[in-house]
From TrEMBL:
It comes from Didymella glomerata. Keywords: Lipid biosynthesis, Lipid metabolism, Membrane, Oxidoreductase, Steroid biosynthesis, Steroid metabolism, Sterol biosynthesis, Sterol metabolism, Transmembrane, Transmembrane helix. GO terms for molecular function: Delta14-sterol reductase activity. Signal peptide: none annotated. One of its GO terms (biological process) is ergosterol biosynthetic process. This is Delta(14)-sterol reductase. The keyword Oxidoreductase applies. The chain crosses the membrane at residues 70-89, 101-120, 132-150, 185-209.
Amino acid sequence: MDADNPIGIQRGDYSWTLPEPLFFCLGRLASIPLQYAIVTYNPFGVSQLPSSSTLDLSFAPSWLPMLEPLTIFLVMTGVLVFKQSIWIFHLCNERMTLQFAFFGVLADFIYEGICALVFSAATKNPTWRPEFLYAGAALHFIAAHIELAAELQRKAFKDETKNQGKLCTAGAWGVVRHPNFSMNVVYGAAYGFATGGPLFALFPIAMYLGNFTANAIPPKEAYLAEKYGEQWEKYRRAVKWKLCPGVY
């Protein structure tokens, strides 16, 4: 599918090598201390950075231990890095180019760096509330794990000899054709909601939807149609929705 696209996963090319995935993972890990540096550097000169000492957390039950807001923020990025590492080293058997790894690290850091800037000024953002951070982080965690569960289910299906050459249509794959992309939209929106509130959340929603609908889904479906033929057409007729049931 992406033989002529060096910034895409090379579909059908199973000559997996270590350097590119390792570069990607190390680059993604570097995003966490860089985000920490951005927030603590306080580029906007905000008098009160988000912390348990400056925020009203009375909405939380007394029995529920509350992590520091900055910790919650960084953990969200850590969850994505963990999930991506599992995908690269356990789930993806196809070749990753250095261009893909570099672009992936750069694009994620730009987005996460913007989120760090927005979060550093959260206490001055009239559309943000402390509740949004914890609710968004919870949804982010759930969506990331649903995506990972769907990917692990598909790998388990593919690893069975009797399923060679077959499409996985069970579980989330029987609800929409790209549940992994669907959860990307959800946890991207949750990340934006947690760091900048509902208005800022529109930014990652537009970014993810634009990428998937215009860039990722069309060539992937073309590849699957070529690889699976009538089996894909039957699946496409049975599972009508690409990302969201009843919508798209």
